[in-house]
Amino acid sequence: MIVGVWLYSEQQARQVLPVFKVPWTMYVVLSSSAIAGIHPMYSSAASDYSGRRGGRSRGMPLPELPIEIQEQVLDHLHDDRRALRACSLVCSAWISTARLHLFRVVDLHRARDCLRFLAVLESTSNGYGIRAGVGRLVRELRLPTMTFDQRGRKEGQRFDLLCQILRRLPNVELLNMERFDWFTFAELLAGPGEDRANADLRDAFASVFPFPRLTTLLLRSMRPRNHPEALQLISAFPSLTSVELVQITGSQSSEDDELVAVSYHGGPRVCIRELVVDRWSSSPPALRKILEGLLRPPFDLRLRKLQWKTSAADETSNHSDGPVLTEMFRGAADTLEKFELDILRDDWLEKNDVSRHRALTDVVLTFGFTRYYSCHWPAVPRFIAQLNSGALREVQLRFEDLHARFHWEFLPWKEMTDALRTLHQRHPSVVVTFTFLFRVRLGQLEPAPFVVEPLRALIRPVLKAGMRVAVVRTGLMDSYKYNSSSPGAPDVTWSPVWSARTWLSA
Questions:
Q1: Average model confidence (pLDDT) for the chain?
Q2: Residue 292 maps to a domain
C-alpha cells in the first residue's frame, strides 16, 4: 500500500527508509528519470537531482507532491491502523489525515481502554474545550462491556470515567451498546430515590449522550430495567433513523404489564427508517412493549428496511405471527424497500398481503429445517405471486439445515413454478436466488447434499421462460465465542467456510 513518494536513489533509500521502521510495501522509491515522467514540472528538478553530489543540490530545491495527493494516498490506508500510526509519526503534515481515520471508529472494551482514550482526548484538546481534539473525529463508538457495579471507595468511578468520555464526542453517528451493563449504569444515572426505577431519564440521557447527529443505535445483549426506560433512551436522539434490537433480556416487564409510552407534547418526532428485530433471542414481554412503544409518538415509523428474525436455537417458540410485526409491515406499505423475514412457519405469510407494497426492491425469506416442526411451507408460492412492486430487483429464498433434516418436499413445487412464472411475466428483470445453508464437519470439502441439478429439474419451466435463477450453496461451521456476561456459557456462532454460486439454465 502506497503512503508517500520520495526522491531517493535506491542506495539512499536503503539507508534512510529503515529509520522510520515502516514496511517497504508502503513506499514507492522513484529514480530521477522516473520522477521526470510524472509531470513536466518535475523534469528540471529531476535533472538537477541527477547531478547531486554528497547530498547537496546545485539548483532549485526538490519539489514536494501536493498535500491533496498525499492525503488521497493516506485515504487508501483507512482500514490499516498499524500503517496509519506509522504515518502519523513519519510526517507532521500527515497527522490530521491519519487521525481522521484512526479515530473514526472507537471500540472500548475494558476500563484500561477508557483510561487511555480519555488521556488522548485530554492531551489533544490543548485547552480549547472538552469538545476539541480527536473527540470531534469519532463517528462510530462501541461502549465497553465492563461492569459498573463497584463498591467502597471505587463506587461510581467507572461511571464517571465513561461520562467524561461521552461528553467529549459531539459528532458520534453510530452507537453500539452490545453487552453494555445498562442495568447498573441506569441505576447510577437515576441516583438515590424510592421511585428511581420509574424515573423519567430523558434529560439525563441527553446530558450523558450528547449526540445530536446520532443516526444508528445498536442495542444488543442488553438488560434494561423496564420498557419505558428503553423507549426514553431511543427518544433521546432526535436524528435517529436506524434501530437494532437484539437479545433484549432480563427486563422486569411481564405480559400483564400495561404499555407506558414516552410522554409527547408535540414538536418534531424521531423518524425511524430502519428496524432490525431479533425476537427469538430476546425476552418476548420486554421486546413486545418496546416495539409497541415505537408505534406511538414521539416516534414516527417510516420504515424503508424491516428485518425480523424469529427462528433459531429456541425452536419450540414462534412469535412471527404477532400483531406488532403485522402492524409495522402494513404501516410501511408506501415506504418499505427491503424486507427480511426469518421464521419457522409460514402462518404469517398466509395472513398478510404483500401486493400493496409498491416500493419493495429486495425480499429475503429465511426458513429453517428443525426437529419440532414439519418443514413444509405451502404459503410461500402465494406470497411470491403477490409481489407487485415495479422497483423489485431480487427475491432471496434461504433454507438453513443445521440438523440434517433436509428434504425436497419443503415447497409445493407445482405452485412454486406457477408463482415464479407469474412473477417473471410481471417483472422480467427480477432475479430469484435459492440459498441453501448446510452444516459442514471438520475436514469436509464442501457442503452436502448437492442441490443444483435437482432444483434445475424442479423449476425447468421457469428457466425456459427466461427467468434468471441462481443457486447459492454455503457451508457453515460452528464456533464458540466468549461471553463476558456469562463466562460459563459461551455463545455459539455459525461462520461460512465454503460458498459457491451457480446460475441455472434450461
A1: 81
A2: no
